[in-house]
Structures are given as structure tokens and as C-alpha cells.
Amino acid sequence: MTQVVDSGAGATFDIAVRWGDLDAMNHVNNTVYFRYIEEARVQLMMKLGMVPPSPRTGVLAHASLDFLRSILYPATVRIVHKLLKVGGSSIELEVFVGDANQADVIYARGRCVLVSINPQGGSQPWTEDERKQIHSVFQG
């Protein structure tokens, strides 16, 4: 279950770790970290109005992640996206996978780039109003 957290940042999401997320080593498999981030990114895109039936959506152009420590069950992870840059038709985000109950515990950190596209699949530049909306989501 994903929970949007009212942190004032507008890009913080809590996700409960499921038993099925564990691998044979009894910790959350590294591919699942990307699924948690994906779920939070979709929630963020919803806040930005970038999901169908909107004429604009987003595609992931880059994703990288450094794994810092294992996530064990039971846990609730907190995904935090921080805005690094707004490009012509993209946004660059720093992402953190942390513990929702212990702010000082970070499981992974990385970066992703989303590109805004139109229904035909071409990149679609941000309007000035959309740029303001992006900044407002991240400023709370």
C-alpha cells in the first residue's frame, strides 16, 4: 500500500514492504527498490497531471541507484524525490529510499530523469504554468 505523506515537500511517499518483496537472502531484492521508486514516481506524476487521460505523460529516460543497506521485513519505506533541475521538457530528480519510521536510515539513493511526452511520443516542452506547478509541488 502506498501512502502519500503530507511532508510539505510534495514528493514523499510511504510504501509498506510486502513479504513477497523478499528474496532468498531474506531481504528486499534490489530490483524491488526500483519498483518502490516507480510507484512513488507515478504518484508524483499524478500530482503533476502527467497521467492519462492527460495529453501529457512522462517517460523514464534515466535511473540509477546506489544501494546502501538492506531492507528487512517488516518495514515501511519512504521514497523522497527532490527536484534537481527542470529542463526544456524534462525534470531531473534525486531519489532517496529511507525508513519511514527512522529518518536517519537511508537504504538507497539515486537519480532519475523524466521526459515529458505528447500522445505521439515526442518530447513536449513545459509551459511557464507547468514549470510553476512543478516547483510548487516540490516546495510544498
Automatic annotation (TrEMBL):
Domain of life where this protein originates: Bacteria
Entry annotated with the keyword Transmembrane helix: no
SUPFAM superfamilies from the UniProt entry: Thioesterase/thiol ester dehydrase-isomerase (SSF54637)
Entries under Pfam families matching the protein: 4HBT_2
Gene Ontology MF, one: fatty acyl-CoA hydrolase activity
Keywords assigned by UniProt, alphabetized: Hydrolase
Similarity comment: family membership: Belongs to the 4-hydroxybenzoyl-CoA thioesterase family.
Protein name: Acyl-CoA thioesterase
Source organism per UniProt: Alcaligenes aquatilis
